Amino acid sequence: MKQKDLLYKGKAKSVFNTSAKGKLIVEFRDDITAFDGGKKDVLKNKGKYNAEVSAFFFDYLERNGVKTHFFTMLDPHRMVVRKLEMIPLEVIVRNIAAGSIVRNYPLKEGTPFAHPLIVIDYKDDARHDPMLNDEIILALKLVTPTELKKIKEMALKVNRLLSMLLAAQGITLVDFKIEFGRQGRTIYLGDEISMDSMRLWDKKTGGSLDKDVYRFEKGDVMAIYHKVAERITKPMNKRR
Ligand code: ATP
Ligand code: TYD
Questions:
Q1: What is the pLDDT of residues 50-78, one digit of tens each?
Q2: Where exactly does CATH 3.30.200.20 map onto the chain?
Q3: What residue's CA is closest to ligand 1, atom 10?
Q4: Looking at the whole model, is its pTM more than 0.90?
Q5: Ligand 1 probe mutation, 26, 83, 198, most atoms within 8 A of CB
Q6: Which site in 29, 167, 175, 212 is 20 to 30 Å from 93, CA atoms measured?
Q7: Can you name the CATH fold of 85-219?
Q8: CB 129 within 8 Å of CB 122
């Protein structure tokens, strides 16, 4: 399979067409951004750590019955995926109050929710990704009611599976964002699941193990990404 022309260049990843029908290559670059692109840097190896963790999670989710776009890794930065018609929704699952929900509502950071909360934003940079509700999602005809139900079920299943896996490594899954796409009538989990798109707290120290380290300059971002990638993909008993 050959990499062909650039299809799309986002803030952190580039997507390429390939010689194989229905397959794309996603390249995880070393670019990192926060605050709607207001803070930007290039951090050596960032793409590699995010790609490694994403691939590990996609493989784990597939083995547990979640349909994902993931096929294989070509090299540490490049992932072969199923070409999807992406649905412009940022599906956020929250277990504990943190980030924008604490800034926008009277919730204390660190308060666990009685049940995981699903918050859906409209992926539209020009409009700064406004929050949606089910009625707006359906009025915009972004998905059918059946698709919306399926997306929510899948998001909660991903949350259960990832929370379990991370808890075993001493990590709390506070919240995360995922994106979905369709091929025909089937909904697949697409994009990435990485330190850029999750909020992870160390169970022992309470310290951040994700992009909040970059957002709020809490420490050596790449040292933390490196350590957390090892911790997730090579648990203690499997490390040499
Ligand atoms: P954001 O950072 O808000 O997600 P972006 O567009 O800048 O936005 P990148 O991650 O840099 O994000 O770009 C990757 C792009 O590839 C996204 O637009 C994403 O929706 C798209 N994408 C991810 N998986 C697939 C797929 N399987 N098929 C087609 N497009 C995909
Ligand atoms: P949120 O608290 O809404 O925003 P912020 O992190 O900017 O304060 O984010 C919730 C989770 O979803 C967090 O783990 C980061 C992730 N996320 C993304 O990866 N991309 C996004 O565009 C948004 C809004 C959130």
A1: 999 999 999 999 999 999 999 999 999 99
A2: 3-82
A3: 13
A4: yes
A5: 26
A6: 29
A7: D-amino Acid Aminotransferase; Chain A, domain 1 (3.30.470)
A8: yes
